Amino acid sequence: MAQISFFDLSSSVPAELLNVEPKDVSDNKIVYKTDDKILIIHREKDTLLGCADEEERKMNNDFCSAFASTREFYDKLYTFTPDDLKRNDNKLTGNKWIVHRKGFVFENVENINRYLGKDFVAYESNYKTGGKLTKDMVLILDKTYPYYFTFSTNICRDQFFKGILESLQY
Questions:
Q1: How many CB atoms lie within 10 A of CB 52?
Q2: Domain spans of the chain?
Q3: What pLDDT score does 90 carry?
């Protein structure tokens, strides 16, 4: 296994997939790259998808009223169905926007996974476009709030992100 480090965290990946030093490092982005494999990790400041800004919140009140945290937004995005909107407690217009947005967000997605740990939640999407498969993951850790992380890779091995989560050190 090879260790990767990112923003005061570390994890392991199979050495044959990504046994390299980061190629591009900035305050909020780290890129691990070999000849044909890439892993990009971004650190994102939680702005509630723009809804933390008072003016944005006013202009998008229906959407912004549907969630109080980025984690709640992603939980709804990954788990809500149109049937959930029929329940009285879910009839907010913003919840309808989230379900509607699924069509855009999950276009070309072959499968999704949600991983729930003791102090984190992660959301994985596997995309197929033009015959190529890519994977994305959003990782929200209680310890790193107000930051969360997004991962993108063309390493399409099953359980790749799950392996990162299982070996996560912080």
A1: 14
A2: 1-46+146-170, 47-124
A3: 75
**Around 30, how many Cα atoms within 13 Å sit in the side-chain half-sphere?**
16
Contact 82, 100 (CB under 8 A): no
pLDDT tens track for 71-128: 999 999 999 988 888 887 777 788 888 888 888 889 999 999 999 999 999 999 999 8
Is 0.85 surpassed by the pTM of this model?
Answer: yes
Give Cα 16 to chain centroid, integer Å.
24
- What are the counts of helices (DSSP H) followed by strands (DSSP E) for the chain? 6, 9
Whole-angstrom distance, CA of residue 162 vs CA of residue 41: 15
What is the side-by-side order of every strand in the sheet holding 147-153?
A: 24-25, 29-33, 38-45, 147-153, 132-141, 120-129, 109-116
Go through 63-96 and write b for each residue having 16 or more CB atoms within 10 A of its CB, e for each that does not. bbebbeebbebbbbbbebeeeeeeeeebeeebbb
How far apart are the C-alpha atoms of 64 and 101, rounded to whole Å? 13
